[in-house]
Amino acid sequence: MFQEFGVRDLLNAVSIAEDGFFVTGTGTGQPQGLVGNTGTGTGSPYVWESTGNYLLNATDDILGTLKGSYFPNAAWLISRATSVAIRKAQRQANLYAGVWTREGGRDLLHGFPVSYSAAMPAIPTVTSAGVVPILFGSFQDGYVIGDRGGAGTFVKLLDQPLATSGQTILLGYKRVDGRIRRSEAIQAITISHS
Q1: Cβ atoms within 10 Å, residue 183
Q2: How far is 18 from 50, CA to CA, in rounded Å?
Q3: How far is residue 106's CA from residue 114's CA, in Å, rounded to a whole number?
Q4: Helix (H) and strand (E) counts for the chain?
Q5: What is residue 89's three-state secondary structure?
Q6: Based on CB atoms within 10 Å of each CB, which residue in 30, 86, 95, 164 is the most buried?
Q7: Residues 6+ apart with CB under 8 A from 131
Q8: CA 75 to CA 179: how far, in whole Å?
Q9: Of 5, 14, 3, 9, nearest to 154 (Cα)?
Q10: What distance in Å separates the CA atoms of residue 97 and residue 111, rounded to the nearest whole number?
């Protein structure tokens, strides 16, 4: 049972770290993150408002900024908290068709698939400005991920460092990098609280 638990726990930890790097990584000693390195979308930040209409307007407007050649593979990348805010805005506006739907077990926004990342910023609070909680575009055209040594997660058993205290270290790692290939293929929606 320990082996199954240990492997599952290491795979989960590496996946969480990798997700964070792909979204907000610095590009130095870690993958280059998407946030801050993609297209600027519609330019000016959308201002937060309690009705949530700014979210509906922002997701509509961003559709017009993506070049047509990227539409066949286009998708959304958001946090689950942002998806909840969009669904609430849709209900408040009494728009029960067309904006947020679910088909075949897949969430769709304006007919395009939605992917979730816990590393994506949430909708801004009173103290935050210029947050990028929504990305839209063709991630396969705009972002390249390179795995060295295969896509698997490697595990090292380090029994020497803590041997005198009877402990063993399990180290999970992956040699991976990510870079923006075409910034125009992915557009960002920036939201500011004021």
Answers
A1: 16
A2: 33
A3: 8
A4: 4, 11
A5: helix
A6: 86
A7: 121, 122, 123, 124, 190, 191, 192
A8: 18
A9: 14
A10: 11
Q: How far apart are CA 51 and CA 58, in angstroms?
A: 13
pLDDT in tens, the chain (194 residues): 777 787 788 888 888 888 889 999 998 888 999 998 998 888 788 888 777 788 888 999 999 999 999 999 999 999 999 999 888 888 888 766 668 888 999 999 999 999 999 999 888 766 667 788 999 999 999 999 888 877 777 777 777 776 677 777 777 777 888 999 999 999 999 888 76
Report the amino acid identity of residue 97. Answer: A
The torsion defined by the Cα of 126, 130, 131 and 136, in degrees rounded to 10, comes to: 140
Domain residue limits, the chain: 2-192
User: What separation in angstroms does the CA of 14 have from each of 4, 20, 24, 34?
Assistant: 16, 10, 15, 18
